[in-house]
Write a structure and sequence with these properties.
L-histidine binds at residues 86-88, 116, 130, 134, 275, 279-280. Helix content is 39%, strand content 20%. The chain is an alpha+beta fold. Strands 1, 5, 6, 7, 8, 9, 10, 11 and 12 form a nine-stranded mixed sheet that branches. Helix 6 crosses helix 7. The longest helix is centred in the N-terminal third of the chain and has 19 residues, at 21-39. The mean pLDDT is 91.
Length: 439
């Protein structure tokens, strides 16, 4: 009996995705809209290596990323390296390496591929693409104004409906002063408490208090203060003992400017916003999806002071945010914001006769030179089968070139959307297609 051949699996590595042309078309469309929006504010695109020294992440990333989520290994030169889990450490290294020659403010963005070893779930994979937007060299709250305007402009560019999202804003110094002054926690305990606060929305009240109580010296007294802090608005939080008044003033000014610039209804003060990264030092914000089926953070960021301090004596404050493709796609799908991305702008030319191969290629070249995307068959087959191929590929127009059409300098143009087929002069073909395709 012949031994059955064993084949390699066709599924991708757990937590990653294959991007077939349809998925790739969506990804390209989504990030092209983001790029266009960010570039309209004067931001320039950069990139860096997907591999970095392990030490870079050990110094600049949070403990959870380094110890649990980092893909790291020893390379053939006995160096410990890691696949980037975030872009900010690479950004800090690059800015520090050329800081004196860069015109300030520095406005940069990137769309890197990022990797983290974590349990895949809805909105969370091991590999994703992420828009990163960063502004360096502006210490005043006006940097926050611009970054939040960009975060909002991206959603507006995708035509997000009114009420479909909220921009929740807080300040790390509010949290720091609450933990150290109001709750009277030492720095090590304060950091542990902040990490429990960061995941409060993801666990039940019983689980939250179960994790929080052992970290507190007097849970009966401190837990009510924590709930009061989390539920406060700008007015009530200012009356809490020990809260940093400068942070309250900062957010008040920020809200005043943003309200005057048309960002009011979607803007919310929310002191429960923590942000997981340890390098945030000032204003922090998160954009939330309000869809009941996807109530979660879409993206967020904040202020980081002296992020380049490990590389240089130069002082340079920055602010930025990251927007991942997985959660954002869920938002677009949930609110019906994805347009028809079929290949309606691509013309299809079948081969009706074997001897007309060269003429079909010449016709396709004429259309391409005119700026029209054109795909041809490379072998003749039954016409019904070739039209079926064009339909399956999502093309709207099919151009038929037979011996009679070649002799008369015409073509037959079929609209697969309507079924209409007309004879068109070869000289008029490009202009007619451009008018129909709006090229």
């Amino acid at each position: 009996m012949e031994k059955q051949k064993s084949f390699l699996p066709t599924a991708p590595y757990k937590g990653t995705r294959d991007f077939y042309p349809d998925e790739m078309r969506f990804r390209n469309w989504m990030f092209s809209v983001m790029r266009e929006t960010v570039q309209s504010f004067g931001y320039q695109e950069y990139d860096g290596p997907i591999l970095e020294s392990f030490e870079l992440y050990k110094a600049k990333s949070g403990e959870e990323i380094v110890q649990r989520q980092l893909y790291d290994f020893i390379d053939k030169g006995e160096r410990r390296v890691a696949i980037r889990p975030e872009m900010t450490p690479t950004l800090a290294r690059m800015v520090a390496g050329n800081v004196r020659n860069l015109a300030k403010p520095i406005r940069w963005f990137s769309v890197p591929n990022l990797w983290r070893y974590e349990q895949p779930g809805k909105g969370r994979l091991r590999e994703h693409w992420q828009l990163n937007v960063d502004l360096f060299g502006v210490k005043s709250y006006t940097a926050e104004v611009e970054i939040i305007l960009i975060a909002d402009a991206i959603l507006q560019k995708f035509r997000a409906p009114k009420g479909s999202y909220q921009i929740k804003v807080s300040h790390r110094k509010l949290l720091d002063s609450f933990l150290s002054n109001t709750l009277e926690l030492k720095s090590e305990k304060a950091q542990a408490v902040s990490k429990v606060l960061d995941k409060k929305s993801k666990v039940s009240q019983k689980e939250f208090e179960g994790e929080m109580s052992p970290l507190l010296s007097d849970p009966a007294k401190q837990l009510p203060l924590i709930y009061s802090y989390l539920d406060s608005d700008l007015k009530s939080i200012s009356k809490m003992p020990g809260i940093d008044p400068n942070a309250i003033e900062f957010i008040s000014k920020l809200f005043s400017d943003l309200n005057g610039l048309g960002i009011k209804e979607q803007l919310v003060f929310d002191p429960s916003i923590v942000r997981g990264f340890d390098y945030y030092t000032g204003c922090i914000f998160e954009v939330f999806d309000t869809n009941p089926e996807n109530r979660r953070s879409l993206y967020g960021g904040g202020r980081y002071d002296n992020l380049i301090g490990l590389f240089s004596n130069e002082q340079l404050s920055g602010i930025g945010f990251g927007l991942g493709d997985v959660t954002f796609k869920n938002f677009l799908e949930g609110h019906g914001l994805i347009p028809d991305l079929n290949r309606n702008d691509t013309v299809f030319i079948p081969i009706l006769e074997e001897g007309l191969f060269q003429e079909v290629i010449k016709l396709a070249d004429e259309l391409r030179i005119s700026g029209i995307k054109t795909e041809t068959m490379l072998e003749p087959s039954k016409i019904a089968k070739q039209i079926q191929t064009a339909e399956k590929k999502g093309c709207r127009f099919v151009v038929f070139l037979g011996s009679d059409e070649l002799a008369n300098r015409t073509v037959q143009l079929k609209d697969l959307n309507t079924g209409e087929q007309v004879s068109v002069s070869r000289l008029d073909l490009s202009s007619k297609l451009k008018e129909s395709l709006k090229v």
